[in-house]
Write a structure and sequence with these properties.
Elements (H helix, E strand, L loop, with lengths): L4 H5 L9 H17 L6 E2 L2 E2 L6 H13 L3 H24 L4 H10 L4 H7 L5 H19 L3 H18 L2 H8 L1 H14 L7 H25 L2 H15 L10 H8 L4 H14 L6 H16 L12 H15 L16 H24 L12 H19 L7 H21 L9 H8 L11 E4 L6 H10 L3 E5 L1 H6 L5 E4 L1 H6 L3 H4 L2 E7 L2 E6 L10
Parallel strand pairs: 3-4, 3-5
Antiparallel strand pairs: 1-2, 5-7, 6-7
Helix pairs in contact: 2-3, 2-21, 3-4, 4-5, 4-6, 4-7, 4-16, 5-16, 7-8, 8-11, 9-15, 10-15, 14-16, 15-16, 16-17, 17-18, 18-19
Length: about 525
Amino acid sequence: MGLATPLFLWSHGIQSLNGCDESFYAQMAREMFISGDWLSPRFLGELFFEKPPLLVWLITLSYHLAGVDVWAARLPGILSALLCIPLVGWIGRQFLNFRAAALGMAVLPLSYLWVQQGRLVGQDIPLTALELLGVAALIAGIQGQPLGFWIMGLALGLGLLMKSAMILLVGVALLPFLIVQTRINILLKPSWLRSSHFWGGLLAGIGLFALWLGVSIGLHGSMVWRSLIGKVVDLGSEGFHATNTWSYYLWHIPAHGFPWTVLALVGFFLLLRGQPSRNVLIWSLPLTFFLELQFFATRTHYYTVQLYPWLALLAGVTVDQAMHRWSERGMDLRSQVHLAQWLSWGLAMLGFLLLGVGLAVIAQVAPLQILAGHGLALVIVGILYLLLPLIWIWRRVVHHAAWIWLVFLLLASTITLGSIIHRPDFGNANPALAQLQQRWSDHLDRDTPVDVGRSGVADVCQAQAHAFYTPTPGTWIEDQDLIAGDFRSHLWLSPVQLEEFPWVQERFNLETVLEVNDWQLCQRTSAGNLPRTQ
């Protein structure tokens, strides 16, 4: 965890939240922090129950500890990402040898998507931490520690409060493991199915979620459960993103965790060739969860975050197997292909390509300037990959060749991530708004309420960002409110509204105070005339 921490905290330049969904959750937490009402999550004054409130609670708590800022909003996700590392190691050690489990721990924070999502405000990394805690506790319970079942129930309840039914997908993915355990336990000792602690923990977890739901319905009526259930049904039956092709995950997962996601596929087949029933949890859970995601209508990159701890363990299996029998005396591998040899030459071909691209970037070849700033990193990573087959060839004369090979493999991913994190725009989605917030008083009193315009979903993400970075945001101003002139003296006009209703500024005597990202902060100088009928 200590070695991985810089990957989640180090940044080059300022940090700022994006609109969807970072600013949304961060602003809800700010309103909760100001109001002190922990049972009524709101965004710009409107109640929001499409998602349960645990993430907003955690951010609000972080605000109480560290103040309202970007890092405080991101702190729950960062801590959750780090907490998953020892959980992965503990779970892996129950089924794999020590080195494979330790390698799984090392691989997880070297996967790009894990680090990228861990540094954002979002539900999926904290949800994954709760899932891993629940799985670890379930294993402990099956091994004869009753307290584990109660911790499992707590993790289930908190998972429901984090992202409602999404945690149930992992419950379904656990079924192959539980079936195998039932067959084993029925012969050796009482089955977990007959354990009062298991059912008690399960009911306690569901009861925790039901308690929040009941209190919220008592305060706000049926809109709570209608919003919550309606959102789950909509996501499951209708795609909400443009990336809803069946093949989306087939390319996205390998690309955003390379090379570890590819090595995980090798590890999957290695476990199937060995003792699949002994390691059933490690290979069956990610496979089942992946199939569940394929049947889910909405497909998006952050859903796959829950797969990465298991892919890390599978990649650890691959690397562990590749390190076997390097220095055995008298070993003759000329008649067979060793896994390390196969991996070394495969990565060396990639290294040759990276080396060429890196040199071209350094030479400022025009088509590759999109990679400007990464040239040196590409060269170093390319060289590291090219050295892997050389280490294999000279393994009999190089002391500790297998460990040097492993260090080069891990170092290549570390340098790659470091180069990405070092980019000024990494984690800095709205630099203009972040800078504006620091000098807001130059334009307007910080206590002045400013309404935020939005035209449907066309610019809702940036509208959320403008709300968070406005010291005192007012309310949403939809198109119909804008046409009716139903807004305060100060208003953010969105680019879509400016294009669709160019007459608004003149009609309501709106004077532009400043412009940021094509949004205009306007001040009404007088009541103005009544709007025309549009």
